[in-house]
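Journal club side-thread
Mid-discussion, someone asked how the predicted structure for our own chain would compare to the paper's figures. Pasting it here so we can look after the session.
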Amino acid sequence: YSEDENKAISFLLPNIKSKRPLQEYVLSVNDLEDLTGIDFFYKLPNELEEDIEKVKDITLWDFTS
């Protein structure tokens, strides 16, 4: 957690061999929480938690390395 930049990314990967790019497995943290029943950022203030968890923006991440 940093006040300067708040972002999160989540992935749902099948347990199979795949050559698909990692970006295809990205989903919002909210979607992953709905699927797993886990509240990942429960210690964050609710407003911040909601803002971070609803985003699914792969342009915020560097997938080149």
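Post-session note: The first helix runs from residue 29 to 36.
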